[in-house]
Write a structure and sequence with these properties.
The complex is a heterodimer. By secondary structure, chain A is an alpha/beta fold. Chain A is built from 15 helices and nine strands. The chains are: A alpha/beta, B alpha/beta.
C-alpha cells in the first residue's frame, strides 16, 4: 500500500477503511512549554512559538495530528476569569466566576476574534498555512454542559445540576451559543476536526438518568450546529453505561475511559465511530521499552483495518512523560506493521 | 439512587423517634449504607455526584444530631488532617471529610491549593498522626514525595494516606511518591485509617 499522509491515514481510520498503518495522535498542549524550556503562560502568549513547536514536534515524532488547542481554562479566561499557572502543571482554572442566577446578569458572549481566544485561532491559521490538508489540525471545545465545572467549581455544579434547574438552564443559555460560536470559529480558521470535551456527562460523574435529561440534551442541541467532524471525549471518565445513548449523536470519533476495556469499547462502537485512545498517559511516564511493546502490539492488531486512532486517553501528554517513551511509541507504531511477524 | 434531602431528614427523624438516639441510626443504618455507597462507587455502579450528595447529607445529619461530638472530636487525639495538594479541585476532599465525619472521624482541613512546603509546616506544627492527601492532577501527586522525604528526614511518625484519580490510573504511583497507603474510595480510606489507629492504640 502506498504511504498515506497523516490526513489520509486519520480519515481512513475514522471512516473504517484500511489505513497504511494505524494512526496515532499526541496531545501536545502544555508539553510544548517544556520542550521550549519556557514558562507555560509565556509559551501560550506567543502563537508563533506554539505553532512552530507543534510543527517541530510533529517532524520529530511523525504523529498524525497537530494541536492548536491551548488548555481548557482559556475559555474561563474568555469569560473574564483566570487561570493558575505553575511550573510543570497544566493550567488550572482560578476561582469560580459564577455562583447563582444573579451572577449571570450582564454576561456577554466572548468573541473568538478577541483575547484570549484569538491566539488559538492565530495558531490554527499558521498551522493551516504550513501544512494545508496533509496533517489534521485537532481543535477543542469544552462542552457547554461541562464548562460550569470550571465556571462554578465542580462541587457547586453537581448541586446545581441536582437541585437548581433554573440556574442550570440559565447557564446553558449562555454556554450553548458560546460553544457553537467558538467551535465554528476554529473550523473557519482551519481546524480539521474538533474534540468535544465533555467529562461531566460521563457516568463516572453523573448517573445516566441525569445525563439523559441534561448533558445528552445539550449535546443533541449543539453537535449538529458545529460545521465539522467531531470526536466526543470523556477525559478518562467511564462511558459504557451510556454508550448506546451517545451513539445517537453525530460524531466520528470517541475517547472512552482510561480504565475501560478498549477492545470492548472498540467493538461496541462498531462502524458508528472510531475509537480514539489506548494509551494510559499516567502509566506512560514510567513505561519501559517492554511496556511500550506490551501496550502497543494489541492496539496495532485491533486497528489494522481501521476504526482506531491511537491516542493518550486524557487528551494531553503529561509533562513528566520521557522523550524516549514518546519516541519508542512512535517508532513501534510506524515500523512494527512492516515487520513480517506482525504483518 | 435518588437525592431527596427533605424526605431523608424526615425518615431519620422518624427512625430516631421510634428506635432510640441518633448513634443507633448511625450504627444500624448510616454506616452500612455509606460502606455500600463507597463500594458501589469503586465498582463503577454509581456516580461521583451521588457519592458527593450522600456525603453532604450525612454531614448535615451529624451536625443536626451530634453537634457537640464534632467539637469534641476536633480536640482529641489522634490528630488527622486532609489537604488538597497543589490543586484547586476540592470535591474529593469534601467527599472524604463528609464520609469520615458521618463515621465519627474528624479531619482537620488544611485547605486546597496548598504546596508541599505549606502542608509539611502544618504537619510539624500539629504533630500530626495522619495526613490524607487528595489530588486530581498527576504533578500534584508527585508533590507527596517531598512530604514523605521530609517526614523521614525529621523522624516524624506521620503516615500519609493518598487518594485521587492519578492513583486509580497507575497502581504503582502510591509507592513511587512514598504514600504509606492509597484508597480508591472514602470507605476504603476509613478502613485503612482505623487499622492505623488500632496499631497506635496498641503501641500506647
Amino acid at each position: 500500500m502506498e504511504t498515506m499522509t497523516p490526513m489520509e491515514r486519520v480519515m481512513a481510520a475514522l471512516e473504517h477503511r484500511v489505513p497504511d498503518r494505524v494512526p496515532f495522535v499526541y496531545g501536545f498542549s502544555f508539553y510544548g512549554a517544556k520542550v521550549c524550556n519556557c514558562a507555560v503562560e509565556d509559551y501560550f502568549s506567543d502563537p508563533a512559538l506554539v505553532a512552530r513547536t507543534q510543527l517541530e514536534l510533529q517532524r520529530h515524532f511523525q504523529h498524525d495530528n497537530l494541536v492548536p488547542f491551548f488548555y481548557g481554562s482559556l475559555e474561563i479566561e474568555a469569560f473574564g476569569g483566570t487561570s493558575i499557572f505553575r511550573p510543570g502543571f497544566p493550567p488550572n482554572s482560578g476561582p469560580p466566576i459564577f455562583s447563582d442566577m444573579r451572577s449571570l446578569k450582564g454576561v456577554t458572549l466572548p468573541d473568538p476574534e478577541k483575547e484570549p481566544l484569538r491566539r488559538v485561532l492565530e495558531v490554527t491559521r499558521i498551522l493551516k498555512r504550513e501544512v494545508g490538508d496533509t496533517i489534521p489540525l485537532m481543535g477543542m471545545v469544552v462542552s457547554p454542559f461541562s464548562l460550569p465545572a470550571m465556571q462554578l467549581g465542580l462541587d457547586r455544579y453537581l448541586e446545581v445540576l441536582t437541585t437548581e434547574p433554573d440556574f442550570f438552564h440559565a447557564l446553558m443559555d449562555v454556554n450553548i451559543p458560546f460553544c457553537i460560536r467558538w467551535a465554528n470559529a476554529q473550523l473557519e480558521a482551519g481546524a480539521t476536526a474538533l474534540v468535544y470535551f465533555d467529562p461531566v456527562s460521563s457516568p463516572t460523574l453523573i448517573p445516566r438518568p441525569l445525563f439523559l435529561r441534561t448533558g445528552f440534551e445539550v449535546a443533541r442541541q449543539v453537535l449538529p450546529k458545529i460545521n465539522g467532524p467531531l470526536a466526543f471525549h470523556f477525559a478518562s471518565g467511564r462511558s459504557k453505561l451510556v454508550l448506546e445513548d451517545l451513539l445517537q449523536l453525530p460524531f466520528v470519533g470517541f475517547a472512552p475511559g482510561l480504565l475501560e476495556n478498549q477492545r470492548e469499547i472498540f467493538h461496541l462502537l462498531g462502524k458508528k465511530a472510531a475509537l480514539i485512545g489506548g494509551l494510559n498517559n499516567i502509566e506512560m511516564v514510567r513505561w519501559t521499552p517492554e511496556d511500550v511493546q506490551r501496550n502497543l502490539l494489541p492496539l496495532l492488531a485491533l486497528g489494522k483495518n481501521g476504526g482506531l486512532v491511537i491516542s493518550d486517553q486524557h487528551g494531553e501528554v503529561v509533562w513528566e512523560t520521557p522523550w524516549e517513551v514518546l519516541e519508542q511509541v512512535s517508532r513501534l507504531i510506524r515500523f512494527e506493521e512492516m515487520s513480517p511477524s506482525h504483518g | 439512587m435518588e437525592y431527596d434531602r427533605v424526605r431523608a431528614l424526615d425518615l431519620v427523624a422518624d427512625f430516631v423517634q421510634r428506635n432510640g438516639p441518633f448513634p443507633t441510626f448511625l450504627d444500624a443504618v448510616l454506616q452500612p449504607v455509606l460502606f455500600q455507597i463507597g463500594e458501589s462507587w469503586s465498582q463503577g455502579e454509581i456516580a461521583l455526584s451521588q457519592v458527593f450528595l450522600a456525603g453532604k447529607l450525612c454531614e448535615e445529619l451529624v451536625a443536626i444530631y451530634l453537634p457537640e461530638s464534632i467539637a469534641r472530636a476536633s480536640s482529641l487525639p489522634p490528630r488527622r488532617a486532609i489537604v488538597t495538594l497543589s490543586d484547586f479541585h476540592v470535591l474529593g476532599k469534601k467527599v472524604v471529610r463528609s464520609f469520615f465525619r458521618a463515621s465519627g472521624v474528624f479531619l482537620e482541613d488544611y485547605g486546597h491549593g496548598i504546596s508541599a512546603e505549606q502542608a509539611y509546616e502544618r504537619v510539624q506544627q500539629d504533630d500530626l498522626d495522619f495526613l490524607l492527601v487528595s489530588v486530581l492532577m498527576y504533578p500534584a501527586a508527585l508533590e507527596i514525595r517531598k512530604i514523605r522525604d521530609w517526614i523521614d528526614r525529621d523522624g516524624l511518625h506521620t503516615r500519609i494516606l493518598a487518594g485521587g484519580a492519578p492513583f486509580l490510573f497507575d497502581s504503582q504511583l502510591a509507592q513511587k511518591v512514598g504514600a504509606h497507603a492509597w484508597a480508591p474510595d472514602p470507605t476504603r480510606g476509613l478502613e485503612i485509617l482505623r487499622g492505623w489507629e488500632e496499631e497506635m492504640t496498641w503501641k500506647r
